[in-house]
Amino acid sequence: MHSQSVSEITLAYIGGGSLNWAQVLMADLVHDRTVAGEIRLFDLNLEAAQRNAAIGNRLSEAHGLSIRYTASETIASALTGVDFVVVSILPGSFDDMAKDLELPEAEGIIQAVGDTVGPGGLVRAMRAIPAMAEIAEAIRKYAPKAYVCNLTNPMSVLTGALYAAFPDIRAWGECHEVTKLRHIIAWLANRAEGAIRYGFRDVQVNVLGINHFTWVDRAFVGGRDWLPDYLNFAAENRENGWRAKPLDPNDEFQRYFEDINRVKFDLASRFGIAAAAGDRHLAEFLPASWYLNRASEWGFGLTPVDWRRRDQAKRREDARLAETGNEVPPLRTVSEEALVGQIRALTRGETLVVNANMPNIGQMQGFAPGTVVETNVLFSGHGVRPIHAGRLPAAVEALVKPHAERQNTVLQAVLAGDGATLEGLFLSDPLVAPLGQDRAAKLFRAMVAATAARLPEKLRRLSA
C-alpha cells in the first residue's frame, strides 16, 4: 500500500494543450494521490492549455487533490524554477503527417506509422529537432536542474537534441512499447500458476536497442527467467500469431494500433532473442519485403492519419464537455505509463527500474558513446542512471546499429543545416533505396516542399 505522504512539486508541461497525454497524466495523478503542487501547461495554442487547466482543476477538486493547474502564456513563465518538465509536442500538424505517409506511398513505400524511421521519420525529425533544441535552450535558461521527460517521437533523435543543445540536461525519453512484451511474459507466468498472480509491472526485463527497435534477453517474474518459455511460445505461435484477447474487428483503435504479435514471434524465432516493441513499429526498421509489404498477412495495421483526425475531433468535443459541463469530468482508468512512478521515485527516495532512452555512457556495448539507446534506467532519490544492459547478439546488432548511426547523423545534420547529408541519408534509407537515386531524390524534394513552412530556412531550400 502506498504511503499517504505527499510530495510537493512544480511541473511544466510543454505541449500542455494535448488532448491525450496531458490528460493521461492528470488521471494518473488522481489515481496515485501522492503528488501535490502546481502543473503549468504551456502550448502554442493558449486556449487549449487553458481548457486543460480547467479540466485538471475540476478533476483535482472533485477527487480531493491539492494539485493546481495553470496555463502559462510563455515558455519562460512555465519553466522558471520547476522541478520537472514534460515535453509532448506534435512536430507539425496532421496535414504534415499525412504528407509524410502519402507521398512515399505514391512511390510504393508503405509505412505503418511513419514517425521514427523511413522517409516519414526522417522528415518529421527535420521538423522536430530545431523545436526540441529551442526547448532545451529554454530549460537551460529557466530550469537547469529540472528532470525532463520527453514523450515525443522520433524519440531517439529528439532526446538526443535535448542533450545536444544542453549537455547537462537531466533528461530521458519515455516509451511504453516494451510493456507489450511484459504483458505476454506475465500471461505466461500466470498460465503456469493457474491463477492471475502477476501483472506486467511485476515483470523485469533486460532491454537493449533503440526506441521502437527494442529487444529483451532476460525476463524475470516469480523468481525465474521466463525468456526460454517465451521463445518456445513464440515458435509455437509463429505462423498464426496470438493475443490474450482476440482483436475486435469493429474497434478501429485496435485495428490500427494493435497486432497479433506475429512479427515479434517471427523475429524471436529467427534470432533467439525477444523483439519487444509493437509489430507496426518493428516492421519499419526492416526491409519492406519482410513485413510491411504484407502487413495484413502479418496481422498489424497501418495507422491512417484520417483516423487520427477523427479521433482528435472526438477528443476535442469530449474535452469541451469536460471543461464546461455540469458533471464531474470522467476519470480515465490508470494508464500503463511510467511517468508518475518516475516522479515518485525521484521525489520520495523510492526506486524504479524501467526502460528509458538516454545517451550511451557504457550501458550498451557495441554502440558509440552519446548514441541514444533504450535500456533499463534506475530512477531513485539519487537521480536518473542508466543500467548496464550488455550487448545485442551479433546478427541483431547488425540490424539495429545502422539505424542508430543514421539517427546520430540525422541529428547532427539537422542542427548544422547540412542538406546534402540529409538528402544522402534519405536516399540510402532501407525503405527508400529500392526506388533508385533519381526517384528517391525527387521524393525527398517533394516531402521537404510539403513541410517547408515548418522547417528552418537552411533546410527549406532543399525543396528547390
Automatic annotation (TrEMBL):
SUPFAM superfamilies: LDH C-terminal domain-like, NAD(P)-binding Rossmann-fold domains. Residues 207-432 form the Glycosyl hydrolase family 4 C-terminal domain. Gene3D superfamilies: AglA-like glucosidase. This is Alpha-galactosidase. Mn(2+) binds at C175, H212. It is an enzyme of class 3 (hydrolase). The record marks D115 as: Increases basicity of active site Tyr.
